Amino acid sequence: MGGLCFEDVEVGNRYTAGPHSVTKSEIIRFAQQYDPVLEKIDEEAAAHSIFGGLTASGPLIFSIYILLTSQLQPRLHFLGGLGWDELRMPNPVHPSDELDLELIVLEKRESKSKADRGILRLRIILRNQRRETVLECLVAVLIARRPDAKASG
Amino acid sequence: MGGLCFEDVEVGNRYTAGPHSVTKSEIIRFAQQYDPVLEKIDEEAAAHSIFGGLTASGPLIFSIYILLTSQLQPRLHFLGGLGWDELRMPNPVHPSDELDLELIVLEKRESKSKADRGILRLRIILRNQRRETVLECLVAVLIARRPDAKASG
């Protein structure tokens, strides 16, 4: 754990992580478990779909965004998510795509009920190697306050 | 594929699927891959977390909702998702929870650009065996129109 706390983060700050290399086997394995439609599992069927080939399932793209959140440099001391808004996946993800996460701090405020945490509102953008957005959303997250800040909080 | 088309679905209709039984190994395996924080992977660490035990990662809960969408009875002939709004996960998911999906049709309209499809706006609710909501959101999806409707569309 550890990492940047509420006091270390300013509105407008940007944090990045990645790339995550998407493989054909990851796309197929994920779809077999959680999105078992033929054109997400079978290359032949996928070739005849509107995408002309295998594409990653929506929840896999969402999972990769969460994975990259854990790889931010510097790390941020997140305590949990409060919810996502305007979640969109405007472009498909294909095998061999390289995905990068960008996280932009839109808003910060102290928690009214708990002195040990604050709330950040973030814009999330996941892009492929051609800089096309493959996932974007707004998210509100809890982030730890610095221990020395609690006393005065 | 196949299943109910745009013409078969009315505003106010409800469709259900489930249950999906969540296992400890599914929670741990998913977190190891996509949400590798100690208290989602290690039972000992989880016992000392604010939840007092292992809980499912957000993207796993989202994945289970998508999985159950493929198990609706009757099936719906979805062509893809357009985006999610107001995605919330108000209660944690624990090992041995049994999750049920409810999908409520809020709105339907024809596609302006493509005669072979329509758009549904749905409320999604995923509940555990105690009827507590563990995921809810609004989603817009593309659904196939009946082949015979295309000619007149």
From TrEMBL, chains A, B:
Protein name: Acyl dehydratase
Organism name: Bradyrhizobium archetypum
